[in-house]
From TrEMBL:
InterPro entries according to UniProt: Glycopeptide_resist_protein, Vancomycin_resist_VanW, YoaR-like_PG-bd
Biased segments, Pro residues type: 68-77
Region: Disordered, residue numbers: 1-108
Domain YoaR-like putative peptidoglycan binding stretches: 202-289, 353-420
TM region positions: 112-134
Keywords: Membrane, Transmembrane, Transmembrane helix
Protein name from the UniProt record: Vancomycin resistance protein YoaR, contains peptidoglycan-binding and VanW domains
Pfam families xrefs: PG_binding_4 (PF12229), VanW (PF04294)
Length: 662
């Protein structure tokens, strides 16, 4: 401190009192101390008394001539045990020192704030950690799936609860309405089921986060159930619905009846919206069944009536004279009747019609005039000799470029001019090589089936023509056979004629009518051969010429027959048709001793109605009641049943009695 002197020890309270001294030693003589008082309180005995000086006594001093002691200092507090009192400074001269400046003590509130913050943080941590630990390892509390509470359960417990509650709720059938048509669709038929694993996978589980803990304590988490979808099965179910209601747009077309071109005007159709139908069926399943309405979308043809009229004029000119084919020095003519039988005018995709010429069909009767038969190629095949199949190897040869010939003839017919076409010959490899069908285990009869029909009808010609196209075809192991893919569209130029056939619930005259008889025969041959049924559709009305519950419809390209060769060996198809029957035989390696078709009783009979039609194309019918029947296939090996297929249910509609008045 400024002006502060040296700090001295506290003043001895007895220092200012003169004590008697000895004349010899000049030491104070202490006499008459009170009992219990030690001389040590006066300090060391050899200390010189600083308060005594020679000379006269100060005026007014005490008698004896001693100097007056200085004023006593302020009393010091008596020391307390265990507490040391700091010494007070003593200043010799000058003004008293300034007091030291001390920092003020912080308020009590400021000292409490850090402690309170730590306490709040600790409480908040405990408020999260404690419930989080209790909730960990289970589905977050408050979690619900379509109203079913699975919160607090383990994943296994939640899965069992969802299967027991939602599984039963979401297995109800869906009624599908398309116009006036109604169908009952079971979830398993549409490939729909509750995806329990995917549904629980949406739910928070494990160690929850702070927001999840808060939501679990104060609210709920609502989840939508997930649906497992077998896409191929749902697509198949939608296609089955579509087949019954689709009316594809008919493009304009020109074909021939004899030499007279016949134009068919384009007709607008209506098609089921497949994508929308699948979505609505899924939604209805999620809603626990009920009814869903599906819609049809307009199908607009690309061609116009004016384009058809123009094509009729071109077609008439196209068959006005023959076309000459030349191959070197050899020449043959395609007569107008041959041209007409293999020529059509179809949509070109741009609103008009263009000629399409079937060169392969047209060459069938004249190819030998251009190429020797012995030089023509031959596909590998099998012939039945002595009741056993024998391999006939393939042979390369010389032939006509059919694709090039078709384009050249179409160019002549579209542009007019010279009606002579140069045919190009070249080396032609067979379509079916020997290596493709040899060594396939085709060695014995596997199955055979025959159906009959009335003699002398136009439909018989179509049955015979299709049997010719099937004969000799080989189905390799694992391959799926498709009747529509093999035969293709039924055309007049391919030898098919108009005949009656049921089309979308009504009798109609179409080219190729009656070929459902071939499809039914093929279906039963594959059925009793033990092969897998991939796709077939029963006919609309029951007819006695087909086996009940085992018939198959056919309509190119919408309705097909498919079966899969699920054996380890190839299958040879041999087909033969007479004027009253058709037989299809399958050759390969026999796998089953016996294949049995077990039929249920007929049930749910529905009476037929009566209707009258003045349509010139009307076909009279006698009427047939509808009913339902189940058929189950059982396969035997060594006399024992080794396989039993699920029952197949067929619902026949009642066929009305139709009276034609036109």
């Amino acid at each position: 401190m400024p002006n502060a002197g040296p700090i001295e020890s506290p003043t001895d309270p007895f220092a200012s009192v003169p004590l008697p001294t000895s004349a010899k030693s000049r030491k104070p003589r202490i006499e008459g101390l009170p009992p219990g008082v030690s001389r040590d309180i006066f300090g060391p005995q050899g200390r010189q008394d600083q308060g005594t000086a020679a000379g006269p006594s100060a005026p007014g001093g005490p008698p004896g001539g001693g100097t007056l002691p200085p004023p006593p200092p302020p009393a010091q507090p008596w020391p307390m045990a265990g507490k040391e009192t700091p010494p007070r400074p003593v200043f010799s001269d000058g003004p008293p020192p300034e007091r030291p400046v001390y920092e003020p003590e912080p308020p009590r509130r400021r000292r409490l704030l850090p402690g309170l913050a730590v306490l709040v943080l600790l409480l908040a941590t405990l408020a999260y950690v404690v419930p989080a630990v209790l909730m960990s390892g289970s589905v977050l509390r408050g979690t619900r799936v379509a109203g079913v509470d699975i919160g607090g359960l383990t994943v296994t417990q939640a899965a069992e609860k969802l299967r027991d509650t939602l599984g039963a709720e979401l297995s109800k059938p869906v009624t599908v309405e398309i116009g006036k048509r109604k169908e009952i669709l079971q979830p398993e038929e549409a490939g729909l089921e509750l995806d329990v694993v995917g549904t629980i996978g949406q739910a928070p589980s494990g160690f929850p986060t702070p927001p999840q803990v808060w939501r679990a304590l104060t609210g709920t988490t609502d989840l939508q159930p997930k649906i497992g979808v077998d896409v191929s099965q749902l697509t198949r179910a939608v296609e089955d619905l579509a087949e019954a209601v689709d009316k594809p747009a008919q493009e304009g077309r020109v074909s021939f009846t004899g030499l007279e071109p016949k134009g068919r005007k384009p007709v607008e159709g209506a098609m089921l919206d497949r994508e929308e139908a699948a979505s609505r069926i899924r939604d209805a399943f999620l809603s626990g069944g009920g009814t869903v309405e599906l819609t049809l979308r307009p199908a607009v043809p690309a061609t116009t009536p004016e384009a058809v009229a123009d094509a009729v004029k071109q077609a008439r000119q196209a068959v006005s004279a023959p076309i000459t084919l030349s191959a070197g020095v050899r020449q043959v003519q395609l007569q107008p009747a041959v041209l007409a039988a293999h020529l059509t005018y179809v949509s070109d995709g741009e609103g008009g019609l263009a000629p399409r010429f079937d060169a392969k069909g047209a060459l069938a009767g004249v190819q030998n005039g251009l190429v020797d038969a012995a030089r023509q190629p031959r596909d590998a095949t099998y012939e039945i000799v002595g009741g056993r199949p024998v391999l006939v190897p393939a042979r390369a040869g010389q032939g006509i470029d059919e694709a090039r010939l078709a384009k050249d003839v179409e160019k002549v017919l579209a542009g007019g001019g010279a009606r002579t076409v140069a045919v190009r010959l070249g080396a032609v490899t067979p379509t079916v090589q020997t290596s493709q069908i040899e060594g396939l285990g085709i060695k014995e009869l596997v199955s055979s089936f025959t159906t009959v029909f009335d003699c002398c009808q136009e439909r018989g010609k179509n049955i015979q023509r299709m049997a010719q196209e099937l004969d000799g075809h080989v189905v390799r192991p694992g391959e799926t056979f498709s009747l529509n893919d093999l035969v293709g569209e039924w055309k007049v130029e391919d030898g098919y004629v108009e005949a009656t056939q049921i089309v979308r619930g009504r009798m109609a005259n179409i080219v190729g009518g009656g070929v459902a008889q071939v499809a039914t025969t093929m279906y039963n041959a594959a059925y009793f051969g033990g092969f897998d049924d991939v796709e077939h559709r029963p006919v609309d009305y029951y007819t006695s010429r087909y086996p009940v519950g085992r018939d198959a419809d056919l309509l190119y390209p919408d309705i097909d027959l498919k079966w899969r060769n699920d054996s380890e060996n190839g299958v040879l198809i041999k087909a033969e048709a007479t004027g009253t029957s058709v037989t299809i035989t399958l050759w390969g390696t026999k796998r089953y001793d016996k294949v049995e078709a077990v039929e249920s009783d007929r049930r749910d009979f529905t009476p037929f109605g009566n209707e009258t039609s003045s349509d010139p194309a009307c076909v009279a019918t006698t009427g047939q009641q509808g009913f339902t029947i189940d058929v189950t296939r059982v396969l035997y090996r060594n006399g024992q049943p080794v396989k039993k297929d699920p029952k197949y249910t067929t619902k026949y509609a009642p066929q009305p009695r139709t009276t034609c008045t036109g």
